[in-house]
Amino acid sequence: MARLLHPPGDHRVAEFVDNTVRINEIAMRSKGYIWHLADDSALVTNPDYAGTAGDPRLAFSMSLWQSMEDFSSFVYKTAHNSFFRRRTEWFEPWTGPNYVIWNYLGEPPIGLEEGWARLKYLAENGATEKAYDVKFAKEHFSF
After folding, report:
1. Are the beta carbons of 16 and 23 closer than 8 angstroms?
2. What pLDDT is attached to residue 125?
3. Angle at Cα 43 formed by Cα 87 and Cα 135, nearest 5°?
4. Any idea of the CA torsion for 93, 124, 113, 33, to the nearest 10 degrees?
5. What's residue 115's pLDDT?
6. Helices (H) and strands (E) in the chain, counts
7. Domain boundaries defined on the chain
8. So what's the pLDDT on residue 15?
9. Alpha helices (H) in 30-140, listed in sequence order
């Protein structure tokens, strides 16, 4: 999750917004990809995008991967990485965790409510096996 510096449609965040679908397509072709939130109302590319809690600058995504290694490869070894490195051009600094990882054992789709609840848990309790970050994963899991 991240908060855009400017609303979708503003030319100052257009490069990020305009490439969202392309990066999602790369994810879908990547090793270990299982699922991502593809609800049109949740995409910043949607002209009617309302964000979360009525904040159209709040952008978020959810995805499911077979392993942390597969996810890390997508994040750091594809075109996604060039956007990740440039995130300060498009997003406000965020206090607290802006992503959460957990071992999901169900069938997709994952309810958005579960993602928000896990992020809140991580913010309030720190990293545990219920909700964690990359640092915790590297310390407790092999990949």
Report:
1. no
2. 98
3. 45
4. 70
5. 93
6. 5, 4
7. 2-140
8. 97
9. 68-77, 80-85, 112-125, 134-140
